[in-house]
């Protein structure tokens, strides 16, 4: 019985961490979509917002249907409130991205910043012939090789916040920003001989 409770507790924590990490990633991508006036990043934020809604519902259902005693379950109340806060953060990120997707004219200060920026956003799919497969982000040295910084990794139906120790896998879609001159090198690094479907 204790083993089952521990497993349930660990699952609740795991789901909360995923919810928190996804909302943080959304904020990063939403700011980048505004600064770079990137519809690709804004669409990624929109896609993630739908994912967060499901994550939040699953998280709350798991916490509320767990069979912990009242004194054991009281600690979940704080987690549930934090879960609500992370969903609000995700909603705010989606509202920021909406500005880009609707083509709303940016404020003159933001427009000036966008015009002055020499950065761009691109994405590339990691194919079997890429030297990136099974390398950690630190080992891959993408910024040094291409001048592009990885903003997010889309793996299946999840988008992950990049961390130095994270391994790049075959089929990962890398979203990156950097100087326009680095885009071709970045694409070739991820997909040397061919492109894969990014849809």
Explain this structure to me?
By secondary structure, the chain is of the alpha+beta class. The protein folds into two domains: 2-101, Phosphate transport system protein phou homolog 2, domain 2 (Methane Monooxygenase Hydroxylase, Chain G, domain 1, Up-down Bundle); 118-190, Alpha-Beta Plaits, CATH 3.30.70.1450. The protein has seven helices and four strands, in the order ααααβααβββα. It has helices spanning 2-35, 39-65, 70-101, 108-116, 137-140, 142-146, 183-190, and strands at residues 119-125, 148-155, 158-160, 173-179. The protein has a four-stranded antiparallel β-sheet, sandwiched between helices. A hairpin with a 2-residue loop joins strand 2 (148-155) and strand 3 (158-160). Helix 1 packs parallel to helix 3. The longest helix has 34 residues, at 2-35. It is flat. The N and C termini lie far apart (45 Å).
Poorly predicted sequence stretches spanning 5 or more consecutive residues = none
- Number of discrete helical segments: 7
Structural class, from helix and strand content?
alpha+beta
* Tally of structural domains: 2
Helix content: 55-70%
Largest sheet: 4 strands, antiparallel
Under the CATH scheme, the architecture of the largest domain is Up-down Bundle
Shape: flat
Strand content: 5-15%
The CATH topology assignment of the largest domain is: Methane Monooxygenase Hydroxylase, Chain G, domain 1
Averaged pLDDT: 86
CATH hierarchy class name of the largest domain: Mainly Alpha
> Count of DSSP E strands?
4
Largest beta sheet: strand ordering? 1-4-2-3
Compute the separation of the termini in Å.
45 Å
CATH superfamily of the largest domain: Phosphate transport system protein phou homolog 2, domain 2
Which sequence of SSEs, written as H and E, runs from N to C? HHHHEHHEEEH
For the CA atoms, what is the radius of gyration? 19 Å
